[in-house]
Amino acid sequence: MNSLSIKIWLASALVLMTVMVALPITGFAKADPKQQEITYRYLETFANVLSILQENYVEEIEAKEAIEGAINGLLLSLDPHSAYLKPENYRDFRNETNGSFTGIGIRITLEDGVITVIAPIADTPADRAGIKAHDKVIKIDGEPTKGKTPFDAVKIMRGPQGTEVTLSIYRDGWESSRDFTMRRSEIPLLSVKSLLLKPGFGYLRISNFQRNTTNELTAHIEELQKTSTLRGLILDLRNNPGGLLDQAVSVSDLFLEEGLIVYTRGRNKDQDLTFEAKANNTLDRFPLVLLVNEGTASASEIVAGAVQDHRRGVIVGTNTFGKGSVQSIIPLNDGAGLKMTTAHYYTPSGRTIQVTGITPDVTVKSQNAILAKADESNNLNSTREADLENHFSSQTEGSEAGADDDALSAEASERLSNDNQLQAAFDILTSLALYAAYDSETVEPVSN
What we know:
With 448 residues, this protein is of the alpha+beta class. The protein has helices at residues 3-25, 33-56, 63-76, 87-98, 125-129, 150-157, 213-227, 245-255, 299-309, 369-378, 410-418, 420-440; strands at residues 83-85, 101-103, 106-111, 114-120, 136-140, 143-144, 164-170, 178-183, 185-187, 192-198, 201-206, 232-236, 260-266, 273-276, 288-292, 314-317, 325-331, 337-346, 362-363. The chain has 3 domains: 3-77, no CATH class; 101-187, Roll (Pdz3 Domain), CATH 2.30.42.10; 192-326 and 342-363, Alpha-Beta Complex (2-enoyl-CoA Hydratase, Chain A, domain 1), CATH 3.90.226.
């Protein structure tokens, strides 16, 4: 073996040893000694191949790039979610889970070798442009994505705030790809938004699970409760691509008094974890409806699965994405990181979410505003009492005509009219709240 090969072999071995050293520190099992011997033998083969390529290939080959490519190839051969994070990618990843970043607001993975959308983050350029879960990203600014890792694609999609990026998207049912041009913006630090639909009925939307999501959610609920006593709550997890496992667990814990939330099973026993609900600060005093769709993935599926299995709320929408694997991030000595799948997670009843996803209790397919308006126009010929000449006016005993303390807010009315899934969730929620009110009261029979 010549001097160059020795250097390459040492570099390759260093990568392997860095990972092996990091694993026990973070609770992972050491590799079997026999497997280590085999690994080092093939590392030498790899070093020899790389040495021959460097000396004879038609173009000059950089050892660093070749080794990083080999690592990426190794991880891509395992599953679409494991990845080697270069130092700059690892920094971006940490910034993203901590809060904000500049881009278009899209989470992607690799499906059958193609960059595929997990979900657009709610209220971001990608969401407003109409990007959907399972869309295939064929090109970015005219550059084909074939052969690129998700982190390569993310790096291209991000850029200075205010600049534009164009994605060529293929969607099932389309004859060819279509271009979506979006202006990059800062993806906000806050992951929770809220709205009081009408007195007693709140709406909460979690766009992704970041480090402060549970605290944000609690603060929003407290603000809603200051306005009026909550009689029901809608938790919107549509197009929520997931995030941090511990935040999914703590959000679920807010609504569950006791019992299992989620458990994981891995190759090693120390990766088998269980997460249980605690009775502290449980929000179990009102009905709950969860909205989900094909962009509801990973951490958000954990919440939906826990609520469904404990019959704490009603799941409304369409079948979720089906990402039921746990990724652990291992920091490496050079500032890079290794993201690898270490376990699968299961709902309290033992269901796997991988591929199958969460099936809603009530299936409601989404219709866009154009279809909704078309449906309204088709009903123009229907006649109601209010359309008849000289109809009786509406009169309510004991109150002034038109007075309604229980009316929808203007923003709520607009959202409900343009979002049939939200409207269905609201109808179910108000029915549940009405039933709960009757159930909690003693109703005396009327005497003749």
